[in-house]
Amino acid sequence: MINASGDSLADFSIALDVESAVKRAKELIEVGCVGIDLGAAGSTQFASRVEVEEEWDRLNGKIQAIAELGVELSVDTWKPEIMARALEAGANFMNASDGMQNPEMVEIAVSSRVPVVLPFLSGEDPKSLEFVTGDPIEVIVRWFEKSLDELDKKGLNRDQLILDPGTGFGPANWDWEDRFKYQERVYSNLDQLKIFDLPVYVALPWKFEDGRKHLLEILLEVGFDYGRTHLPQRILEIKNELESR
Q1: Do residues 124 and 169 make contact, with C-beta atoms less than 8 angstroms apart?
Q2: End-to-end Cα distance, the chain
Q3: Distance between CA 79 and CA 98 in Å, rounded?
Q4: Between the chain's N and C termini, which has fewer beta carbons within 10 Å?
Q5: Digit-coded pLDDT (tens) for 178-219
Q6: For the stretch 182-207, what's the b/e string if a residue is b when 16 or more beta carbons lie within 10 angstroms of its beta carbon?
Q7: Strand pairing of 116-119 and 161-164?
């Protein structure tokens, strides 16, 4: 993960110029990452809003330079204007943080035919998620059932999709104790997403205190197809620790 925005809470992943973005990309690749996710507008409640041109200015140049490294490159945005430009500049994955709610984003996915990360989104705005009531994994499964059906009708090839339970977004404004319980429930039952027969993508913890390491261990035991991480080397260390027990 590389952040082209200064809003990131993981400040060590921030790269505000092309040179530092390429440097970090090479570091991530060297420790085993098979792809890079690049974002320029934070999706948390702590990040500031940016207009289209400002977001693009943060990405322009970085996309082209990282694409030259020959790895899979996704751009994380909920703006279709940004996604279209990113694919033209060399990105080859869509990380559609709008949950594919915008018809223009769907059109881009249909025409480009690139893989698409589809995150669960309980509200229309990824920065102000509504509270999920009831069993979260049941809510997530129902949301994907409905969303996949709608995307099928719009002509999107289902094989392009990669499902993200959306835990990297929030829930916004929850105390950590509540967030922990929410994520523990989702991660412990992540295999329920296998009913869709599509790859699963998870935003992995980059902090490991207050039960976060426990959450990571659950994910490593349950299994997933794609993991987005700021600290790949530490993730691998914890994976090896878990396997050696």
Answers
A1: no
A2: 29
A3: 8
A4: C
A5: 889 999 999 999 999 999 999 999 999 888 999 999 999 999
A6: bbeebbebbeebeeeebbbbbbbbbe
A7: parallel
For tokens 């990105």, name the residue. 91
CA dist., res. 229 & res. 145, Å (int):
27
pTM, entire model: 0.91
**Per-block mean pLDDT, blocks of 10 residues, the chain (245 long):** 81 89 95 93 65 96 97 95 98 95 97 97 57 85 96 97 87 81 96 97 92 96 94 92 89
In order of their start, the domains of the chain are: 2-244 (3.20.20.20)
